[in-house]
UniProtKB/TrEMBL annotation:
The keyword Transferase does not apply. The keyword Metal-binding does not apply. Pfam families: FCD, GntR. Residues 237-260 are annotated as: Disordered. Keywords: DNA-binding, Transcription, Transcription regulation. This is FadR family transcriptional regulator. GO terms for molecular function: DNA binding; DNA-binding transcription factor activity. Residues 241-260 have a biased composition (Basic and acidic residues). SMART domains: FCD, HTH_GNTR. It comes from Leucobacter chromiisoli. Residues 7-75 form the HTH gntR-type domain.
Amino acid sequence: MATTTGSERARSTLAFLRRHITTGAWPVGSRIPIEPELAEQIGVGRSTVREAVRSLANIGMLETLPGRGTFVRSATPTSTLLNEFLNDFTLEEILSYRRALEIEAAQQASMHRTEEDVAALERAAAEERGCTRCPVLGLGDDNSAFDSRFHRLLFDAAKNRLLAALYSGINDQLRTPAHRGRLANVATGAEMERDHARVLDAIRRRDFIDAVHSMADHVDHDVVIVTAEHEVVPPLTRTAEQQERIDTAREEADGRLARS
Ligand SMILES: [Zn+2]
């Protein structure tokens, strides 16, 4: 007769819970089944379930509220772990990491997007059209609760769960009050509209080179660091010659958009 050890049961219980969370079978915000129910479903003891729930609570995926049950808080463990890890880095380093993620997502989105992704991005771009600033990181207008759906949807279109998880973690980090006061969004509403239209156009045409360039251009001015001297520090500083090449590429992209 096959027997399973305690550690195997613990592992499979953890895997069971994790799978239900990461696949969205238990969506973020939902209450998971009660302990005896889970114990029966998985075929383990209640203490094994309790232990697994506790370890997922430790990494921020679940939260147990006394008398109310256990709730899904995050579909990935990345957020909590990543935030602790990122605390050791400077804001400049974090912002440059965010830049890399946005650019990679734009490129992957241009290759993996479906028609539904394009439609969803078009809707988001249209919704955000009235904003005076790109609402990325909640830095748009005065509505700090509003985050850019356009930016998030790019990560859905990229079809890469790890990129999406890392992005969500870094967003949480950059949204902290400590960082918020030091960050500003200097892209005007008109600039955001033009930038997003360009990124969207590249993704629609599955042009992965344009997708990269247009997103790189956008992230260079959508979120910047404000220093004590009220100077703004873009993620990348360029020479006049580099700036000229960027301006030329921008004009070409605008020409293409005007013709389409
Ligand atoms: Zn944006």
